[in-house]
């Protein structure tokens, strides 16, 4: 082979390697933008090898969620330093990359957008929390502890509910997540939802539809306690196949909050039932209307 041709091939290979290295060495500061509120902005700086300005840009893979604007950069020595603004448009996740000569960098800036908390939504949340707490007091007034003890002595219903909720539901949620979504974070979200314990709404529906309130309360309490162990079990085993690089955090604080917010009002209702039976009778009559 002609030495000139060989030299040209080596130079071409070297230029290709330099281009790949350049694409692999983009650094963002901060390294990620988490929980950016909808409608707000975040300023991000970056550092990269020298890039051709005419073919240089920063782009988001999901502008509907987060868009990029106000790109400024300066070339100093062997690096290009720049800044740009990320705007949070809608709830979700996006990836921001540096694009040069039509090639995207392998490094990316993860962006997550969350809902902006307004005063109206805060008032609504507090109002619902107060109404739910009052209704749990009403449920405590209607609760028959002898029936609850019978349910726990012969726990056919709770056992069926436990296996349905913590064996069938996670597997069904995992299958649906694989079938319905391509994005890993959506798959993980649906799977986590399927692993979560039943909430207080099931007790409300039990009251409205004339179900067995004693059984419903017992199953809700048992499932909430059990979720302290079953949620980590599922998320750190099967959940890892959906999002291997994720840092999974179990919401133990939220689970304990749910448990306390249910147990304390029920205790107040049971106390009224024992020491203030007339007040408890009034609360029983208010149970269905408040549940609506």
Question: How many angstroms separate the termini?
Answer: 86 Å
Helix count, per DSSP? 9
CATH class type of the largest domain: Mainly Alpha
Report strand %.
Answer: 15-25%
Q: What is the third-level CATH name, the topology of the largest domain?
A: Na+/H+ antiporter like fold
Q: How many distinct beta strands?
A: 9
Share of helix, binned: 55-70%
Compute the number of structural domains: 2
Main beta sheet strand tally, sense and closure: 5 strands, mixed
String of helices and strands? HEEEEEEEEEHHHHHHHH
CATH architecture descriptor text of the largest domain: Up-down Bundle
Q: Report the mean per-residue pLDDT as an integer.
A: 81
Structure notes:
This is Putative ileal sodium/bile acid cotransporter-like protein. One of its GO terms (cellular component) is membrane. Residues 1-23 form the signal peptide. With 292 residues, the chain is an alpha+beta fold. It folds into 2 domains: 23-114, Sandwich (Immunoglobulin-like); 119-291, Na+/H+ antiporter like fold (Up-down Bundle), CATH 1.20.1530. The chain contains 9 helices and 9 strands. Strands 2, 4, 7, 8 and 9 form a 5-stranded mixed β-sheet that branches. Strand 5 (66-76) and strand 6 (79-88) form a beta hairpin. Helix 4 packs antiparallel against helix 5 (184-195), helix 6 runs antiparallel to helix 7 and helix 8 (252-275) crosses helix 9. The longest helix is centred in the middle third of the chain and has 25 residues, at 156-180. It is elongated and about 85 Å long. The protein starts with a helix and ends with a helix. Residues 20-24 have low confidence and may be disordered.
């Amino acid at each position: 082979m002609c030495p000139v041709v060989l030299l040209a091939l080596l130079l071409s290979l070297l230029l290709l390697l330099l281009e790949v290295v350049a694409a692999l060495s983009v650094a963002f500061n901060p390294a990620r933008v988490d929980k950016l509120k909808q409608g707000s902005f975040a300023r991000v700086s970056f550092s990269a090898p020298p890039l051709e300005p005419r073919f240089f840009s920063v782009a988001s893979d999901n502008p509907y969620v987060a868009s990029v604007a106000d790109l400024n950069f300066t070339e100093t020595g062997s690096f290009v330093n720049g800044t740009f603004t990320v705007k949070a448009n809608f709830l979700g996740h996006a990836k921001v990359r540096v694009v040069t000569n039509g090639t995207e960098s392998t490094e990316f800036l993860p962006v997550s957008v969350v809902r902006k908390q307004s005063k109206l939504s805060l008032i609504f949340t507090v109002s619902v929390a107060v109404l739910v707490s009052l209704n749990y007091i009403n449920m405590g007034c209607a609760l028959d502890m002898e029936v609850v003890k019978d349910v726990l002595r012969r726990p056919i219903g709770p056992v069926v509910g436990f296996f349905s909720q913590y064996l069938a539901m996670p597997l069904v949620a995992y299958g649906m997540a694989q079938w319905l979504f391509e994005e890993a974070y959506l798959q993980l979200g649906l799977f986590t939802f399927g692993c979560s314990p039943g909430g207080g709404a099931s007790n409300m529906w039990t009251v409205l539809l004339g179900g067995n309130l004693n059984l419903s309360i017992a199953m809700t309490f048992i499932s909430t306690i059990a979720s302290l162990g079953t949620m980590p079990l599922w998320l750190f085993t099967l959940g890892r196949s959906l999002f291997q690089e994720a840092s999974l955090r179990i919401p133990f604080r939220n689970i304990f909050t749910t448990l306390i917010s249910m147990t304390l009002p029920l205790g107040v209702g049971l106390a009224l039932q024992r020491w203030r039976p007339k007040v408890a009778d009034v609360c029983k009559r208010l149970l269905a209307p408040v549940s609506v």
